[in-house]
Amino acid sequence: MQVLVRDNNVDQALRVLKKKMQREGLFREMKARSAYEKPSEKRVREKAEAVRRQRKLARKKLQREGLLPAPKRAVRPAR
Question: What are the Basic residues biased-composition ranges (predicted)?
């Protein structure tokens, strides 16, 4: 993973790096590897993740078809 530092702005480059790592799931993987996970716990977790993914896909499909209202977007105050 590579991040360019522009105008010696290391703080901004660090923010970009953290955002990229977050998107790639690196923090979640590091947390998972920090302690041993029993095979039975792993199966339960993976099953729950699969159920969550399927529900999310079904919800998005219903929203596209117009059977469910679209989620309300948060309005950010102007700077």
Answer: 53-62
Question: Contact at 8 Å (CB) between 79 and 70?
Answer: no
Q: Answer whether 0.85 is exceeded by the pTM.
A: no
Would you say 1 and 19 are in contact if contact means Cβ atoms under 8 Å apart?
no
- Residues 21/27, Cβ–Cβ less than 8 Å: yes
Give me the residue label for tokens 């360019």. 4
Is residue 1 within 8 A of residue 24, CB to CB? The reply is: yes
Binned average pLDDT, 10 residues per bin, the chain of 79 residues: 90 94 93 93 96 96 89 79
